[in-house]
Amino acid sequence: MASFEETFTQPKTTVPKKSSGIIGYDVPEGVDIRGRYDPEFSKILTRGALQFVASLQREFRNHIKYAVECRREAKMRYNNDGLPGFDPTTKYIREGEWVCAPVPQAVADRRVEITGPVDRKMVIDALNSRAKVFMADFEDALSPSWENLMRGHINLRDAVNRTITFHDQARNKVYKLNDQTAKLFVRPRGWHLPEAHIFIDGEPATGCLVDFGLYFFHNYANFRKAQGQGSGPFFYLPKMEHSREARIWNNVFERAEKWVRIEKGSIRATALIETLPAVFQMNEILYELRDHSVGLNCGRWDYIFSYIKTFQGHPDRLLPDRTQVGMAQHFMRSYSDLLIHTCHKRGVHAMGGMAAHIPIRDDPAANEAALELVRKDKLREVTAGHDGTWVTHPGLVPACMEVFTNNMGNSPNQIHSMKRQDASILDEEDLLQRPRGVCTLECLRLNTRVGIQYLAAWLTGLGCVPLYNFMEEAAAAEISRVQNWQWLKYGVELDGDGLGVKVNLDLFGRVVEDEMARIEREVGKEKFKKGMYEVACKLFTRQCTAPVLDDFMTLDAYNNIVIHHPIGSSRL
């Protein structure tokens, strides 16, 4: 078999080949593009870039399939009264005295990071937001239509090259990058998501390898010169449940580095700890990524979603109203504290959670009250030892930056000053403590309303949606879906509002009907009629009432946004 280097050509822009008078993408053997042809897209889907992605797919697809199968086996254990916990066979890693590679100077200071989709104007706004980092998201904040994905890669290429502009015709205003911008991180999709517009050897490509491969191929050199100060590119890694998944990413990084002949450890990544099983694997995940790691992040909304999903077979572990499951809950606070201790022991960043509020422009008093809640949450994070935090809106950057700077001073991070040795005693009982709270009809209504509206937007190409003064992404809709499913399955009693009724199909049906009527009133009849609300309602209702809980809402909905074109590829 040819070596990794021998398989590839160097990046180049190719001219689409003509076949029977039809223009299509110039693809290597075994690759089939089923998405719409566009001359701009062809500059991303070059023959060399597709060779790179195809090689990653061929080398790692069996490892990915095995990791996904291991997830299914773990799910079966949890559904049969099993509990996640620390692995006794990797105790030597947890108790060892190793550290990760030193943090690159380019990303030493990450006190406020902004996240968002790869929409062109959002990319410009986020890079100009005065945050330290912008995480450009191909995952939860993006509806992965062919158009969104391809235009996202065009936007990131232009951002790295500093040629990105956006003309707002309504305002007759041109947006461009400031001289000083946030550092760019990219989050590819999770291992479980396919890319159904690109087939490799007769099967859909793995979404995250497409995202990583295309971005790395086109941008590694310019990024290292312009942003990375000789290191990078930088990534966020979502949805991992076990260190074997981190090992795959580490091997992908090493292959990419070897191909372009940059030093090992140039690529750096922060892993999101956003699944319950992963909290017991934090040391092991860092160990597998130790040459490429720049820390862990508390993905707390997905973590709540994962808590419900992991315990879907445990009627004694029902989650109360979602609004009551905050960082004051013992299991959530323990997760955050242990993450800080683990990261700082290993010499890397411990990043805090998301502030999803958006400015309330027509109500200054309500806006200030919301900002005060954000400040308190960020003060809790920085005093606990987090090195930085997440926001979804540029309007939150100044307030959060002020909180972290007031407490950290001139230090870029707290890696060496806040070891949190007190958290080293946290155990499985702390991390799995049952959350306390009550269940209400209002929560059932809110879950239904948010879930349907988010899914309706997602089906029309929006993955980041403002709802009720929050910027919602897939994690919020997932919490809505799985909590409704859990309450329906176990007939939860609504004990928090004095009703005393139990959740059943009849009650849920009435709630869906009421909330659809409310959505129509709120958005207006014309928008409601033109939107995808009815389709979203059917999908959401089906998933909430299914006898078996789907792992991810977006897997079921994905087929609704996949559009295949008969002619997309041509070959030499």
From TrEMBL:
Keywords: Glyoxylate bypass, Glyoxysome, Peroxisome, Transferase, Tricarboxylic acid cycle. It is found in: Glyoxysome. Residues 29-92 form the Malate synthase N-terminal domain. It catalyses: glyoxylate + acetyl-CoA + H2O = (S)-malate + CoA + H(+). One of its GO terms (molecular function) is malate synthase activity. The keyword Signal does not apply. GO terms for cellular component: cytoplasm; glyoxysome. This is Malate synthase. It comes from Solanum tuberosum.
